[in-house]
Every structure is written in C-alpha cells, then in structure tokens.
C-alpha cells in the first residue's frame, strides 16, 4: 500500500554473520609480574572464540 504520507510493504531476507578470533602467545609488557610469567611462545593458541 502506498499513500502520500506512508508506505507499507513486506521485507523478506536472510543474514548470517560468522566471526572467529584467536590469540597466540603471551609476553610480559608491563610491570605486573603475575601476567605471562613464564612467557608463552607465539605458536601456542591461548584463546579461541567463534561468534555466530
């Protein structure tokens, strides 16, 4: 339906989004001695997250 002040119609669609994140290794950067001691090599996957 269409009029000078409004329009009514149907919308049909599909959307899918996928994201994947990985974090590798850990090296001490600041003065907090409890973080990343000992150092973890960059080939070690520490964190993985998948979002849909």
Radius of gyration: 24 Å
Q: List unreliable stretches of 5+ residues.
A: none
Strand order of the largest sheet: 1-2
Instruction: Tell me the fraction of residues in β-strands, as a range.
Output: 35-45%
Estimate the mean pLDDT confidence.
Answer: 86
Description:
The protein has 52 residues and is mostly beta strands. 0% of the residues lie in helices and 38% in strands. Strands 1-2 form a two-stranded antiparallel ribbon. It is rod-shaped, with a radius of gyration of 24 Å. The model has no long low-confidence stretch (mean pLDDT 86).
Q: Any chance you could write out the topology, listing elements then pairs?
A:
Layout: E1 19-26, E2 40-51
Antiparallel strand pairs: 1-2
Short overview:
With 52 residues, this protein is an all-beta fold. The protein has strands at residues 19-26, 40-51.
Annotation keywords:
52 residues, mainly beta, two-stranded antiparallel ribbon, 2 strands, 0% helix
């Amino acid at each position: 339906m269409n009029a000078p002040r409004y329009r009514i119609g149907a919308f049909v669609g599909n959307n899918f989004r996928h994201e994947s994140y990985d974090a590798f290794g850990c090296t001490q950067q600041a003065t907090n001695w409890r973080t990343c001691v000992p150092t973890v090599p960059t080939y070690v996957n520490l964190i993985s997250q998948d979002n849909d």
